[in-house]
Amino acid sequence: MNTFDYKKEDKDLYVPKEMMIIEVPKMAYVMVEGKGNPNTSESYQEAISILYKLSYTIKMSKIKHQQPKGYYDFVVPPLEGLWAIDDGDFDGHKIEDKENFYWKAMIRLPDFVSKDYFEEVKREVTILKPHIDVSKAQYFVYDEGLCIQMMHKGSYDDEPISLQKMNQFMDERGFVCDISKTRFHHEIYLSNPKRTKTENLKTVIRLPIQKIR
What we know:
Elements: H1 6-9, H2 11-14, E1 20-24, E2 27-35, H3 42-59, E3 79-85, E4 101-108, H4 115-128, E5 138-142, E6 145-153, H5 159-173, E7 175-177, E8 185-189, E9 202-211
Helix pairs in contact: 3-4
């Protein structure tokens, strides 16, 4: 059986070749939320560990005698993040005071993972790895809807340059950014910053939008 890779099957979602408007389907994620500078926050690093532990436990269901209904082997999807700030909507430009960032760190779940099975996996990890606090993980369904997205290359701190291009693209086509308490600045991290030179980092930036004219 071939290993399913979302980055290859859903290329428009994960490796956009150019700036584009896209209707993003509803998807389920394993998600941990928190606040603070992702570069220095212990809670953010803990969240990442929780996400990957649960994701790989689900992947390794293939070696169990009882697999969930509909199971297929898959490549664990990339880390993603939804971002907000204390004093208003996160627009990607106010990146100086990262201590005030609210974040939802998350990894996409395969379609066969139901909420019940997700909770079963959490119980399994709690027994096998009691030092990992998977109680912080949530089964999160995000119905993202109409968005604009592009591939940002380079430092995360240089994202305002890409966002300016996105704003211009939206304005020329009659769209505005629609960030709210339920729609977020979204980033998909295709590179490991610990193993990749800063100038070679690849991040999909996605913003919710609405048509105004």
